[in-house]
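Sample 1 of the test manifest.
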Amino acid sequence: MTIDETPRGPGPGGETPAMAQPRSGARDLERYAGLFARRTQVMKSSAMRDLMAVTARPEVISLAGGLPDTSTFPAEDFSALMARVGVDDAARALQYGPTEGLVEVKDPIAQVMAAEGMEVEPDDLLVTTGGQQVIDLVCKTLIDPGDVVIAEAPTYPGAVPVFVSYQADVVQIEMDEHGMRIDVLEAELERLDAEGRLPKFIYTVPSFQNPTGVTLSLERRRRLVEIARRRELLVLEDNPYGMLRYEGSPLPTLYSLDGGEYVIYLGTFSKILSPGLRLGWTAAPRPVLDKLNLGKGAVDLCSSPLSQLFVRAYFAERDWLSYVRSLTGLYRRRRDIMLEALAEHFPPEATWTRPRGGLFIWARLPDYIDTTDLLARALRDHVAFVPGRAAYLDGRGGSEMRLNFSGVGDEEIREGIRRIGKVVREQVGLYGTLTGAEPVRPAVAPPPSGVSGSAAEAPSGPSGGVPEPDAARVLPLRRRTG
Amino acid sequence: MRVAVLKGGDSLERQVSLRSGARVEHALERLGHDVVAIDVGADLVDRLGAERPDVAFVALHGRGGEDGTVQELLELLGIPYTASGPSACIRCTDKVLAKHALRDAEVPTPDFYAFSQAAFEELGAARALPAIEERLDFPIVVKPAGQGSALGIKFARTPGDVPGAIVAAFSYDTKVLLERHVAGRDLAVSVLEGVDGGPEALPVVEAVPNEEDFYDFEARYEIGRTTFTCPAELPAEVASRARELALAAYRVLGCYGFARVDLMLDEASGELTVLEADVIPGLTDTSLLPLAAEAAGISFEALIARVLELAVARAPP
């Protein structure tokens, strides 16, 4: 067989070999690629996607999800309520509805917002297909390619593809244990000002943030709202977890502090009732809401009337707050189990957050550990987490990880953290061997003085028992230059 | 013929394998074969026993499927299968073994040093790192010995980067490779065997990064971030040398059926070196072997038909 090397394919004599194809291979390869819009080039690498695909296998204990536990919702309640919808409202449940949402679902929404200290008029609300749609609609409404969006560092990983798909220029603001650093925010705003760039909006998850679990302090909430007013910037307040508080007193939302002038509020039934309903909402200043409504009409005409009528029936006939209380009890216990397991199994070099609510803990490992590679190692031990890079758009977060405690059982949390801790210790030990920094035997090494991390594994340590989770070190989050 | 397409599995390249497998199934059906798709798992032997295929098309990538494990099992079960046998699989999947074999046979490959985790933990190999760094010069490429995709490959630009890069590579394997970095052009030559004529090198493919993402390995194989040209725009003598080297590597490593050989063309010296060989290259819409075959006038179906024919031809009577 002779194979021609000239770029044209067929030989110089112009004869086409018997099996030749009319189009060139290179063009065939890019047949579709050439048609894709630039905004489809999502940041997340294919390697990371491949890794995440393996986390879904049944034998893997996945602390990578962000799932609420729907197994505790009473099945008989579910079927009774669905039957109720069928009897009362079959035709409407099966029909299209208004884009802004059915009027009947706005009362339950007002109840949920009232429980967090907010007052809202039905006309200020737009019912959406999950909270995720609000992020999309806000970007669709506000963002031209290259516009600046401010977000936390790290930010909700699910918002990253939305920002990328609208070609936003995302500036991520460092956090500490009190949430987004407002001083850093102000410095960034000044810098952008000097460049003549006005950010379109500030995206924040102020309560029990995804992914860190950190809550924005009251003082910073006030300052953030004040900055938004002074600079006439919008804030997108994403609040899926506000009701899932396990300790401490509730803080006012940005929406209530601002009175709905510069804050677009995002709420959802996903964490207090069910994500399968795909039902969320937004409350926003009227002119913004009108644009969001137009955008939603173009995307999906309306959110499922079946889901909306189910919510109506649920709020009319069941005590939604008592279900939320049962969830907070369940998740509080799981959080405590995860914190205990972290203190027992993670090496002293690791730090992590201690969230007072929500679904996630954020851990930070020494800089020399790459959590994307660590995930590949952890998957061999059938355990998974979200590598930190997924929560940044700028390549930061390489040594960080998100751990979920709501969607897995107690024993799986303990075992999952034990397995991750084992591979982390292995890598810390190996790095020590390579650099001559410390001896190789992390499993039996006595704990450094006063640090609780490895006390439980010290054969003759003074405490012996499980360390107090409160002693876990609070995570100093990564600096912008880091 | 009744053909079992083995795909999926639990390697990190599961997703690519599922896509390769789906495309192969489609082609086999169009060729008129009776196709059984098997997502490889704990029930593989039972499935093969129940389905009784005449031949197995191995569309697995990565650990388990490409490292000789499945091939050994198919030998045992007496089921003819596509592409290389266990020994070539073992040699090619382990980049260290492959590079030693190439070097022994005087097929040029970038200088390298390889270590097991035990060497560092029990033999104090860390003490040898400064000497290696001096000989290889920075940047050094650090790779896990047995990972097929870009995962775990890191550039160490300074001595301070080396330990972290080694730790990352050990996430994938118990053996790592420190390799001299070749600055230049990224080439791939696929080799396809003729049913009677022996192996032939297909036209050279070049991967050209769209941006100057020079150190981003992942970007190199991602659609939209890399442009693949085939045949690569190379002087005729360079292209023919690349194909000669690919054939030499194919033979030295003992491959069968098809394989893809990755090479580097050193920008400064013009020297060609072989990086590695992949015994079950990707067979997706965007993979390089089908691209090269098509440039040579061999359609995907013809490619699949030939590989299948070779599998049957190799089977003991």
